[in-house]
Amino acid sequence: MPWIATLRMSLPLAVLIASVVSGCAPSAAPPESPRDTGPRMTEDGTQRPEEVQTPPGEQADKAPAPRPQQAPQQAGKPASPSPPDTVMRQMNDAARRVPGVEGSTVVLVGRTALVGVDLDHKITGSKIDSIKQSVKEAVERTDGGYRVAVTADVDLVARLRDIASGVQQGRPVSTFTDEIADILSRLLPET
Question: Which residue would you say has higher pLDDT here, 86 or 32?
Fold first, then answer.
C-alpha cells in the first residue's frame, strides 16, 4: 500500500510546517479604541487600570480600581513562558557547560529543540554518544516541555548553524522548511 508510506512521510512534514508557521505568526490583536477605558495587562501579567480622561463638563463616576497583587512566583518555576530567544540562549549555555563541548547551536521548531554540538577533536567513539546524552539531559532541564534532539555530525551542525544565522538575520523560518524537515528526519527517525 504505497499511499500509507506517502501518508507516513507527508503527515509529519505537514505537522512540522503547521507548527513552524503558527509559531512564527504575529499575534493578532484588535486595535485599541481611544474610548476603551477597561483594565490593561502589564508585562508582569497583572491588570492595571488606565487613567480615564473625562470629557469637559462631565464628572468621573468611578475612582480607578486598585492594582491587584501579583501572586508570588513558585520557586524554580517561571511566571510565564520564556521567549524563544531566551530559551535558545539558556539551552546553548547548558550545552556548552557539558565537558567536551566546545560550541553549540540551537534551533527551535515548535516544541522541538535541535541542538548541534562541536566537540573536542580528541573525543571519539562511544564517548561522543555519552556527551550527546549529557547535552540532551542538560538542555531538557533548562525549559521543560521541549523534545530535544542532539547531533555532533559536522554536516548537520553546519546546517543548523546556517539556519540559526538566517533566522537571526530576519529570514522567515519558512524558508528553511525543507532543510529542517531533512534534519528532523535524520535526528528523529520514525519508530
Answer: 86
